[in-house]
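Translocating chain-associated membrane protein 1-like 1
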Amino acid sequence: MTVLSAICFTQAFMMWKFINFQLRRWREHADAQTLKKKQAPAKNKSKKDKANGVNGVSSHGADSPRSRKEKSS
């Protein structure tokens, strides 16, 4: 009975450490994502840049790698 309780205690301890480790990683990752999101909106493009597309090239869907599905009636 002592060995069984020692194994259960060891498993519970290891699970506790693993969960805390994963939560810490998740929080750090979430903090890094919020910092990236806060920095991204700081760069505002002018209306001309938005109208011209990426790097001044406007594709209007012509360069899209995906083909469009045909609409059925």
